Every structure is written in structure tokens, then in C-alpha cells.
Amino acid sequence: MTHTKDRNVVVDIERNRLRVIISHGEDEEIIKLSFGEAHTLYEALGKKLEDYKQRQNLRID
Q1: Which of 7, 44, 55, 61 has the smallest set of CB atoms within 10 Å of its CB?
Q2: What sections of 1-61 are H helices per DSSP?
């Protein structure tokens, strides 16, 4: 499996939604979220990032 660095995430504001565009290679995924959905994603992502950060500091002897 090859890991490429040509991934990109762009977030734009449309009239009533947030548009998230995730590009990886030649593929592109577009997700449109309402304010509530975007806020739920924001909170969930924040929790997962904090968990990830704590796991990075966890030392197993």
C-alpha cells in the first residue's frame, strides 16, 4: 500500500450549508453538512483528536 501526500481538505460556506471537499489523488468526495451536522462533526473530531493526543503520550513498558 502506498501512502501519498496529495490529500487535501477544503471547507467552504454555501448559503445554508458547509461544504467539505476531500481530495485524494484523482478522487474527490464532497460532503454537504447543515449547521447542526457540522457542529456534531466538530465536537466528535475534537474528542477523537484529544484521545489520539493522549494515546501518543501513553508509554507502555
Answers
A1: 61
A2: 35-57
Q: Number of folded domains in the chain? A: 1
3-class secondary structure, 3: coil
The verdict on residue 61 lying in a domain is: no
For residue 10, what is its C-alpha cell? 477544503
| Residue pLDDT tens, the chain, 61 long | 344 578 899 999 999 999 999 999 889 999 999 999 999 999 999 999 999 988 887 766 5
Indicate the pairing of strand 27-33 with strand 7-13: unpaired
| Maximum C-alpha span of the chain | 52
Q: 18 lies in which domain range? A: 5-56
